[in-house]
Design brief:
By secondary structure, the chain is of the alpha+beta class. It is built from 3 helices and 5 strands, in the order ααβββαββ. Helix 2 packs antiparallel against helix 3.
Length: about 150
């Protein structure tokens, strides 16, 4: 016989946890709730950004290793542009430009990849403006948003 709890026990455990959390949240005043929301959002954003960076680094390593780009140098930067359509808010598009050490560029389509999924989550935090660009430095991990008026 297994020592693991069955589904009924897991459900009651989750409900008990939810009840405890609800009581804790109810005990907080508005200012404390605002601070908690800010801290949760900050931590969530950091995790989403780290997930996007990890996916980009992994994908770029595969592109380089498997010779899937037009250039032999590793990818150092990836630039995304905004995508705007009629039914969704502006978001970072999954078509990007990978820049190599030499400055050469390769177009990359991240559709259907882990990068696309992480990028959607990242878009929900950054709320990009139409025409802006997101540049990710794969060496330093720095994310830079540039406006449409700024040089590439």
């Amino acid at each position: 016989m297994s020592d693991r709890p069955g589904p009924a026990h897991a459900t009651s455990s989750a409900l008990a946890t939810e009840s405890i959390i609800d009581r804790l949240l109810d005990a907080l005043d508005e200012q404390q709730l605002d601070e908690l929301a800010r801290r949760v959002s900050t931590r969530r954003f950091a995790r989403v950004e780290a997930r996007l960076l990890a996916a980009l680094r992994a994908d770029s390593a595969v592109l380089h290793r498997d010779g899937l780009t037009d250039h032999s140098e590793p990818v150092t930067h990836v630039t995304f542009s905004t995508h705007d359509n009629d039914y969704d808010p502006v978001c970072w598009g999954d078509n990007a430009v990978a820049r190599h050490e030499s400055g050469a560029k390769t177009p990359v389509d991240y559709g259907g990849t882990d990068v696309e999924h992480a990028l959607r989550d990242y878009s929900s935090f950054t709320c990009p403006i139409a025409g802006s660009r997101l540049v990710v430095d794969l060496n330093t991990g720095q994310f830079t948003v540039r406006g449409a008026w700024e040089p590439a």
